[in-house]
Amino acid sequence: MAEAKGGMKSDWLIASPPSRLERIEAHFQGHAYDMHRHDSFAIGLTLNGVQSFHYRRGYRHSLPGTVLVLHPDEPHDGHAGDARGFHYRMLYIEPALIQSALSGQPLPFVAGGLCREPRLASAVQALLATLDGALDPLEESDGIAELADALAANGDARRGSPKRVPDYVAAQRVRERLDAALADGVSLEELEALAGQPRWTLSRDFRALFGTSPYRYLTQRRLALARRQIAAGIGLAEAAHAAGFADQSHMTRAFGRTYGLSPARWRRLLGTR
């Protein structure tokens, strides 16, 4: 890792204790992440510096106090906008948790990826106030509800609303089956039968409600488990096996596509600060 002035490592990352929300704080001096996409919302605050990234055919620059709202399945990267580097906090929240407060409505979309609206900023700040310990369960639930309402209030209603109302009950059955299928997998035919829908209808409804396809959802749940294992000190090969990947190479490829860095670099960053 490069050294910053005063001997402090310029690139570092800390993660909060495991919970329904993944929360991190990080600093990067230059390039941080390659282009990648994940199935969660990535919502955070720039604390210092300029946080620059490519997103939805544009090049964005987040300044201190700006809220970043990156929608599931949208490719993006990350790097410092100038020589000072950038410091930020971010939470990764499954669309299913937002859905629990939206009662089956399509996911809200905040156009442009950046927002300075006070209600949304306050909701994000409340969930990212500290990473020292796990959030109280009631505090976390209240925070998720307020975040969902703030996202809906700031969402762009013009963005591709489905022509039919998605079948939330069917999609939720499929999501629960995928959550239980990390180790052994599941066939598309089984999911069709479970939903009572043809695969194309199931895929459209699932994407509208949870932000990604059933296949990518399963892959991302496996990666989230692998990342928790790695953060706990488990070896890469063992973490890959525990999360249901065929081998370490399979996990490494998926990890890079989803998080924009390798599992080995993720592990090094956690131990840098």
Automatic annotation (TrEMBL):
Signal sequence annotation: none
SMART domains: HTH_ARAC (SM00342)
Span of domain HTH araC/xylS-type: 172-269
The protein's name: AraC family transcriptional regulator
Keyword Transcription regulation: yes
Organism domain of life: Bacteria
Source organism (scientific name): Salinicola endophyticus
Keyword Flavoprotein carried by entry: no
PROSITE patterns: HTH_ARAC_FAMILY_2
Keywords recorded for this protein, A-Z: DNA-binding, Transcription, Transcription regulation
Source species taxonomy: Bacteria, Pseudomonadati, Pseudomonadota, Gammaproteobacteria, Oceanospirillales
PANTHER family listed in its UniProt record: HTH-TYPE TRANSCRIPTIONAL ACTIVATOR RHAS-RELATED, TRANSCRIPTIONAL REGULATORY PROTEIN
